[in-house]
Amino acid sequence: MRVTIFGTGYVGLVHAAVLAETGNEVVCVDTNEHKINRLTNGDIPIYEPGLQPLVQAHSLSRKLIFTTDAAYGVEHAELIFIAVGTPSGEDGSADLSHVMAVGRSIATHMTSDKIVVVKSTVPVGTCDGVYATMREILVQRGLDELDVHMASNPEFLKEGSAILDSMKPDRIIIGTDNREAENKLRELYAPFNRNHEKIITMDMRSSELTKYAANCLLATKITFMNEVAGIADRLGADIESVRRGIGSDPRIGYHFIYAGMGYGGSCFPKDIRALIHTSIEHSYHAGILEAVESRNSAQKRVLFEKIKKHFGDRLHGRIFAVWGLAFKPNTDDMREAPASEIMTMLWQAGAKIQAFDPVAMPECKRLHAEHLASRDLLLSDSKEDALDGSDALIICTEWKAFLSPDFDLIKGTLKEKIIFDGRNIYDPVVVKRYGIEYVGIGRRSA
Ligand code: UDX
Fold first, then answer.
1. Is residue 133 part of a domain?
2. Which of 60, 349, 411, 434 lies at a C-alpha separation of 20 to 30 Å from 155?
3. What is the residue with the minimal CA distance to atom 17 of ligand 1?
4. Which domain of life, per UniProt (predicted)?
5. Is residue 204 part of a domain?
6. Which atom of ligand 1 is nearest to the CA of 121?
7. Contact status, residue 319 vs residue 380, Cβ threshold 8 Å
8. Is residue 216 among the annotated active site residues?
């Protein structure tokens, strides 16, 4: 099938690579010329396991073409996906300018009927808005007889396992009342829908809301556990024991009940804020969502408060080793990463950071250039180097490489023998056995 995807961010690029892999002829359109040039040369701007070889192989075979030429993209396609970003505006609302601009561009260039599918995470009613705008342009162009077949098809991939998630989706949501669009999408997704039925069809608005509901529920689960961890901290209970105890109930399940430093990334924070904003617009009080948002912001301070409790106000001039900068493992993404927040609080208190992350160091360099320049931040060559001369160790991301460290070395290197574990990756009993003090999130001290 001939497919065009507008937007070469996480969602667009992964989707394009996976569709090329299943034999489609995919054109990716982006307004960012520099990015398109990099992609054309096989240089992938994001770190995502498995993405680079797919993009390189299919670029070579011309199954995947990158261009800034929207007219060419529209002309090429039987099926057009809109997969551009919807960042948070100042007031928390989703910024739809990119989505609407793509809709306008398609309507401006189309000379035959088109199927247009919105993959970006968009507030309920956006697909209707894109459709109405496109129709207006077609009328202005005197091409009223052309059809736009609209659908919503949200994406549920997780960074770090995006290719796998796309190859083996849990579900494929097709939101449309339009037969043409539904049939074409069913055909496109047939290779991913082989063993059992994964396609769930519904109307466009329900599909748009499904995406928000999924992310907001997951964020709520995490936040609930963070709150219980705070209770456990005060009562001498252990959140890890509680997690195992409740996760065994299939109605609760083991996923997304890990207490930590608060959720980050490009989706949860933005989507919670957008749904709160939509609710306010409709004079509806989304109290749970508001509580999740404010609890999560508070959660990002919890580990810092524990550090302050240990060191008192004597943070000035101290050096902290930080292991992990990405908002989660297997990505270099630092958007709303708890590591950035805790480093900022430590810098404000006059401390210095020696950080290590297996892949996010270039991103950290970009984000915190001024702290590198002032030498408040040093990016270390290894996790061991980061310990050198540090007062304490802070764990911010649960990378596999951090799971079984040399505790003797940690004890021998740190000035104060203490680990602040923002991801609860160590067993307090084991750490204590090595003569190191352990502070986790809701962990019972050994
Ligand atoms: C999320 C959704 O999972 C995905 O379906 C959607 O399409 C995009 O948003 P992503 O942001 O890539 O994916 O990461 P995810 O693995 O969901 O983690 C989000 C955040 O929650 C991370 O900061 C992670 O550290 C945190 N988290 C996750 C917890 O703190 N505890 C948990 O138990 C699980």
1. yes
2. 60
3. 158
4. Bacteria
5. no
6. 7
7. no
8. no
